[in-house]
Amino acid sequence: MISTLEKHLQSSTGKHRARLLAKKWAWLVVIGGSRAVKQVFDLVGGCVLLLASLPVFALLAAVIKLDSPGPVLFNQIRVGRNGRLFTMYKFRTMRTDAEKLKEQLIKHNEAGGVIFKMKRDPRITRVGRILRKLSLDELPQVINVVRGEMSIVGPRPPVPSEVAEYTPADRRRLEARPGLTCLWQVSGRSDIPFERQVSLDVEYIETRSLWQDLVILARTVPAVLLGKGAY
Questions:
Q1: Which tens digits make up the pLDDT trace of 18-59?
Q2: In this structure, what are the phi and psi dihedrals at residue 99, rounded to the nearest 5 degrees?
């Protein structure tokens, strides 16, 4: 909406321009208020999720350690809002030599675009496959939400190598803080082609609101339980 108003402002004059300016500032106030509400929602929701998840954290940490050698958590640099880098946390679901094996498996990529995905990825551990199916591997990211690096709802955070290959249109995904869940994750997750993921993220950014976040959260529950597109 703001970008459309700015285009009209460039060619408008007089009273029409004044009306467009007033409309633009009104939209900026609305957007600013919505962002403030979303930040409070993320902070409170993140803290509640973190405290409620502590027993699950302890249980999953023990199971991961018993299943395979290596650390419990997997830390990775991701790209956040406006290109800012941050360390994202996940429960480890892969073997410790996963990156080396990726070079051998790259020809089997099933995701398309700039991301790598395989339905039967041999790098994933037994416990890791279950965690991914239920999206429990993403649970530690509530720490990122509490720290203000992520949001509860927003585009999923990409790795720098993916962003390096983005087109100008793809980079619109970086206009919002990344989230634990997003529009394309409740619409098919990894079964959705990369280009469609981008278009759904941009659609979310252009229409985002607290109500939309609540709708996506409500759709996340059945999406996780059904496990469709999770691998």
A1: 565 555 554 444 445 567 778 888 999 999 999 999 999 999
A2: -65, -35
Residue 113 Rama label (left phi>0; alpha psi -120 to 50; beta): left
CB-count burial class (<10 Å; 0-12, 13-18, 19+) for 215: middle
Closest of 124, 126, 152 to residue 138, by C-alpha: 152
Using CA atoms, how far residue 118 sits from 2, 107, 121, 139, in Å, is 39, 10, 5, 22
Q: What is the pLDDT of residues 180-205, one digit of tens each?
A: 999 888 887 667 888 888 889 988 98
Which residues, other chains included, contact 188 with Cβ-Cβ below 8 Å and sequence gap of 6+?
Answer: 228, 229
Q: Is 75 helix (H, G, I), strand (E, B) or coil?
A: strand
Residue 87 near residue 75 (C-beta atoms within 8 A): yes
Please give the Cα distance from 194 to 116 (Å, whole number).
Answer: 10
Tokens of 213: 């976040």
Orientation angle between helical segments 14-67 and 2-10, nearest 10 degrees: 150
Residues 69-117: tens digit of each pLDDT: 999 999 999 999 999 999 999 999 988 877 777 666 665 555 555 566 6
Whole-number Å distance between alpha carbons of 195 and 164: 16
Provide the pLDDT for residue 9: 46
- The Cα 12–Cα 73 span in angstroms is 55
Predicted TM-score of the model (pTM): 0.76
Indicate the SS3 state at residue 85. strand
87 bridge partner residues: 77
Identify whether the C-beta of residue 108 lies closer than 8 Å to the C-beta of residue 189: no
